[in-house]
Specification:
By secondary structure, this protein is α+β, with helices and mostly antiparallel strands. Strands 13-12-9-10-11-14-21-19 form an eight-stranded antiparallel beta sheet, with helices on both faces. Strands 3-2-1-4-5 form a five-stranded parallel beta sheet, with helices on both faces. It has three domains: 99 residues, Rossmann fold (3-Layer(aba) Sandwich); 70 residues, ATP-grasp fold, A domain (Dna Ligase, domain 1), CATH 3.30.1490.20; 242 residues, ATP-grasp fold, B domain (D-amino Acid Aminotransferase, Chain A, domain 1). The model has no long low-confidence stretch (mean pLDDT 94). It has 16 helices and 22 strands. α13 packs antiparallel against α14.
């Protein structure tokens, strides 16, 4: 096993990796920007080093990170998610520096990072894909020809896109020119290349992903599915395991397809194969995330398996100590992404000092977070500040527990989406499992929620209640 691991990331995921390392008696190294100097993960790591000079550049400088790791005796690097986690150059430089990259090979990242290439590989491997173009679409005439053949509506998608960037929908031929030109322009600005392709657009499908894990000896297993259909602007908001719509036959087929996808690119370590599922339970590959996912927590909660520890073990060359039949999910788990943003103001991100913080607890409640009272939330990064996860023996228990936990969760000084999430927990369709990727768009009434009381009043009330209990 490794002796010292550097986490090339920040925030919640850095803290998460540090916890797994500590349980395996591995020393940890954090990197941070000046904006993150007071962050929780910086305090928790055994060693911490300032990288900079700006708030972003240090986290993206591969050469500086690998050089630092070499100088301080690091034998492995965990990339977390985002930043450099899916940059194929990262594992290459780690290998040159005799440092283990805790993730897949550079070749696998490259193959699955290009969506056009990944789509072709999946077709050859027998994994279902949406009807669409053969490779990239060069011009408007070709785009219209392909769209006419597969039928509208269609998606124009960036080859290197993700999270909705470089994706536009055309409902008719009249909309193709705008969708095509906008997607190419956005793709060029975001990813440096303007390659786009076309796929059939499914109206309000379910977004379901399969967690896989592979060792370096050719063994690959999956951990069943997560339903990530509750999204806003193609960004996941709530994740659930297992899915409420899959039957056992479809679940088995999707798991087998995910393993087939991983084997097609000689994948190692943890990854996620994402699918769209229609009302007939037909499923189609959309992409593979060649890293740990934000929502890995719900899979951990229903399987009882620490996926980060497994990442470390297989990266160290150990054989998977489990087989597919050993994966036996139990109950339900749900994750809500707690974000410092203002839903009523077009979900505008918030930054500032946390003036009050009170976290929920009790049976079946987990928090993976990065903030505390008096912490200054920087305005340079993703707005997610914590992940709240609840479990239950049944779906109803998991939802009720999440609702209760959101009621207990206090973050003041900045606006958060907690009241918006509470509104979702009370929605009849959500509670009865009637949701898909169009759920948020169909529910503008979710923004009609009440703001919380003044934080000083609430904290004072909590303090008074605790003091009263001590008096008995």
């Amino acid at each position: 096993m490794f002796k010292k691991v550097l986490i090339a990331n920040r925030g919640e995921i850095a803290t998460r990796v540090i916890r797994a390392c500590k349980e395996l008696n591995i020393a940890t190294v954090a990197i941070y920007s000046e904006a993150d100097a007071t962050a929780l993960y910086v305090k928790k790591a055994d060693e911490s080093y300032l990288v900079g000079p700006g708030p972003i550049e240090g986290y993206l400088n591969i050469h500086r990170i690998v050089d630092l790791a070499s100088k301080i005796g690091v034998d492995a690097i965990h990339p977390g998610y985002g930043f450099l986690s899916e940059n194929p150059l990262f594992p290459k430089l780690c290998e040159k520096g005799d440092i283990t990259f805790i993730g897949p090979s550079s070749a696998a990242i490259f193959k699955m990072g290009d969506k056009i290439q990944a789509r072709e590989i999946m077709k050859q491997a027998g994994v279902p894909v949406l009807p669409g173009s053969e490779g990239s679409v060069k011009d408007m005439d070709e785009a219209i020809k392909v769209a006419d053949e597969i039928g509208y509506p269609v998606m124009v998608k960036a080859s290197g896109g993700g999270g909705g960037r470089g994706l536009r929908v055309a409902a008719s031929r009249d909309e193709m020119e705008s969708a095509f030109n906008t997607a190419k322009s956005e793709t060029k600005g975001a990813f440096g290349v303007s390659d786009v392709f076309i796929e059939k657009f499914l109206e309000n499908p379910h977004h379901i992903e399969i967690q896989i894990l592979a060792d370096n000896l050719g063994n690959t297993i999956h951990f069943n599915e997560r339903d990530c259909s509750i999204q806003r602007r193609h960004q996941k908001l709530i994740e659930i395991a297992p899915s409420l719509i899959l039957d056992q036959d479809t679940r088995k087929k999707m798991g087998e397809a995910a393993v087939k996808a991983a084997k097609a690119v000689d994948y190692t370590n943890a990854g996620t194969v994402e699918f769209l599922v229609d009302d007939n339970l037909d499923f189609y590959f959309i992409e593979m995330n060649t890293r740990l996912q934000v929502e890995h927590t719900v899979t951990e909660e229903i399987t009882g398996i620490d996926l980060v520890k497994k990442q470390l073990e297989v990266a160290a060359g150990r054989k998977l100590n489990m087989r597919q039949k050993d994966i036996r999910p139990n109950g339900f788990a749900m994750e809500c992404r707690i974000c410092a943003e203002e839903p009523k103001n077009n979900f505008m991100p918030n930054s500032g000092r946390v003036t009050a913080y009170y976290s929920p607890g009790g049976i079946g409640v987990r928090i993976d977070g990065t903030i505390y009272k008096d912490y200054e939330i920087p305005g340079f990064y993703d707005s997610m500040v914590a992940k709240l996860i609840t479990t239950g023996r049944t779906w109803e228990e998991a939802v009720s527990r999440m609702n209760r936990s959101l009621e207990e969760f206090v973050i003041r000084g900045v606006k958060t989406n907690i009241p918006y999430l509470r509104k979702i927990m009370h929605d009849k369709d959500f509670r009865e499992g009637r949701f898909d990727t169009g759920f948020i768009d169909r529910k503008p009434e979710l923004l009609d929620y009440e703001e919380f009381e003044d934080p000083t009043d609430l904290v004072a009330a909590i303090s008074a209640a605790i003091a009263a209990c001590h008096g008995f």
